[in-house]
């Protein structure tokens, strides 16, 4: 009987913790060092070195296809998926912005964050983007049919898979 009671209590505690975890997917996280409020999407990250856009651009210049690096950087959002907020492009001072997607599609960002500064934590790499994916992304970004039809070749892309994003209010 004791084992049954302990099992039931364990299940209740587990479910309560799971509900709390889902409630905190999007939360306000105070930034003590800068005394700013930010909205957190995905996993929280603290006490990490945050690179400037220029520093992140330099890292991408030295990456080769197949290389990956875990890093945290900040920069302004140039574009965001208008359908769901399932990707964003962040300026790092390179020729092209960084295409940021979210780990396991575990979270999305608001669709109205262009020009806002974000801090992104995760894994940087170089990707080759096939034509069909480029067309899909262009469609999500609201590009015209002419612009979409002009996409005919695979493209090398600065890529990033984020496990956490902070957006300054």
Protein model, in words:
The chain is α+β, with helices and mostly antiparallel strands and 169 residues long. The chain is 28% helix and 38% strand. Strands 4-5-6-8-7 form a 5-stranded mixed barrel. Strand 1 and strand 2 form a beta hairpin.
Write the SSE topology:
Layout: H1 2-23, E1 26-31, E2 36-42, E3 50-51, H2 53-62, E4 68-80, E5 87-90, E6 98-102, E7 117-129, H3 131-140, H4 145-149, E8 155-168
Parallel strand pairs: 3-4, 6-8
Antiparallel strand pairs: 1-2, 2-8, 4-5, 4-7, 5-6, 7-8
Features:
169 residues, alpha+beta, 4 helices, 28% helix
The largest beta-sheet arranges its strands as: 4-5-6-8-7
Provide the β-strand percentage band.
35-45%
Ranges with pLDDT <50 over ≥5 residues? 1-33
What's the assembly state of these chains?
A: single chain
Categorize the overall geometry: globular
The major pleated sheet works out as: 5 strands, mixed, barrel
Task: Output mean pLDDT.
Answer: 82
Structural class of the secondary elements?
Answer: alpha+beta
The end-to-end distance, rounded to whole angstroms, is 53 Å
Helix-strand pattern: HEEEHEEEEHHE
- Give the helix level as a range of percent: 25-40%
Q: Evaluate the radius of gyration.
A: 19 Å
Number of helices: 4
Number of strands: 8
How would you concisely characterize the structure shown here?
With 169 residues, the chain is an alpha+beta fold. It has helices at residues 2-23, 53-62, 131-140, 145-149, and strands at residues 26-31, 36-42, 50-51, 68-80, 87-90, 98-102, 117-129, 155-168.
């Amino acid at each position: 009987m004791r084992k049954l009671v302990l099992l039931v209590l364990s299940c209740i505690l587990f479910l309560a913790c799971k509900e709390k975890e889902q409630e905190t997917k999007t939360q306000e996280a105070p930034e003590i060092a800068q005394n700013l409020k930010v909205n957190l999407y995905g996993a929280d990250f603290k006490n990490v070195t945050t690179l400037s856009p220029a520093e992140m651009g330099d890292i991408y210049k030295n990456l080769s296809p197949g290389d990956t690096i875990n890093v945290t950087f900040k920069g302004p959002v140039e574009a965001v998926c208008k359908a769901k907020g399932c990707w964003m492009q962040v300026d790092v001072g390179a020729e092209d912005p960084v295409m940021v997607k979210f780990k396991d599609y575990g979270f999305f960002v608001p669709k109205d964050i262009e020009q806002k500064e974000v801090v992104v934590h995760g894994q940087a790499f170089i990707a080759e983007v096939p034509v069909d994916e480029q067309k899909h992304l262009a469609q999500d970004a609201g590009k015209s049919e002419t612009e979409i039809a002009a996409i005919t070749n695979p493209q090398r892309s600065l890529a990033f898979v984020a496990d956490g994003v902070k957006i300054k209010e």
